[in-house]
From TrEMBL:
Keywords on record: Nucleotidyltransferase, Transferase
UniProt-recorded name of the protein: Nucleotidyltransferase family protein
PANTHER family linked to this entry: N-ACETYLMURAMATE ALPHA-1-PHOSPHATE URIDYLYLTRANSFERASE, NUCLEOTIDYL TRANSFERASE
Superkingdom, natural source: Bacteria
Pfam family, one: NTP_transferase
Record organism: Marinobacterium rhizophilum
Family annotation (Gene3D superfamilies): Spore Coat Polysaccharide Biosynthesis Protein SpsA, Chain A
Span of domain Nucleotidyl transferase: 3-140
Length: 227
């Protein structure tokens, strides 16, 4: 089973930090943000990993290399101009889903202790989403979780964590170019084709300088060497 880390964002909300450094390489604690995902995926048995990039993407390739030092084989999808989440995944679909196999997608700008080994290796749906409690900056949430299925309507809503397992069937009818993932997920949800689970552990949307700095402080307090 293969995995993709989404790392093609422009990092506009993180400027000036991202003027000369792509967001996935910003450091929190003792390493670059994207390294936490790489290490966690490899620990869970995902060793073939694709990373898409656009803004300053050559730095990402130079820093991570072929992935051998992480115990992974890293491939890259250089987009030039960002293709948005859906378009970026669709561009890499042939690599991600050989023979129609499901694949893992992780947003590169989140931090989480979610155990990737818990993700389903097989799907009875078009996608499986990991949901988390709504953060202060997104109190309305995204989706409802009911009996292991994701729904649009319901009493209690949760936030999509950016961690998912997806099937190539989710992209049926799509064509090359830039497009968002959310409309595809909502279409599949209406059809009852999206399963889900709730993660009650650590999750941070590292989308602003302030949240990045807070995460850095928190990690430096807990990492043994204090770096």
């Amino acid at each position: 089973m293969r995995a993709m880390i989404l790392a093609a964002g422009l990092g506009m909300r993180m400027r000036p930090l991202t003027l000369n450094t792509p967001k996935p390489l910003l450091r929190v604690g003792d390493r670059a943000l994207i390294e936490y995902h790489l290490e966690a995926l490899v620990a869970a048995g995902f060793e073939e990993i694709l990373i898409n990039h656009a803004w300053l993407g050559a730095q990402i390739e130079a820093y991570l290399g072929d992935g051998s030092r992480y115990g992974a084989r890293i491939c890259y999808s250089a987009e030039g101009e960002p293709l948005e989440t859906g378009g970026g995944i669709f561009r890499a679909l042939d690599w991600l889903s050989p023979a129609g196999a499901p694949f893992v997608v992780v947003n590169g700008d989140v931090f989480t202790d979610y155990p990737f080994a818990r993700l389903p290796r097989r799907l009875d749906a078009d996608a499986h989403l990991v949901l988390v409690a709504n953060p202060e900056h997104h109190r309305a949430g995204d989706f409802v979780l009911s009996d292991g299925r994701i729904r649009e309507e319901g009493a209690e809503r949760y936030t999509f964590s950016g961690v998912s397992v997806q099937s190539a069937a989710l992209y049926e009818g799509c064509t090359a170019g830039a497009f968002a993932l959310a409309p595809l997920l909502r279409r599949a949800i209406v059809q009852g084709r999206v399963s889900g689970e709730f993660h009650d552990g650590c999750w941070v949307d590292v989308g602003t300088v302030e949240r990045l700095q807070q995460l850095d402080r928190d990690l430096r307090e807990t990492q043994p060497d204090g770096n």
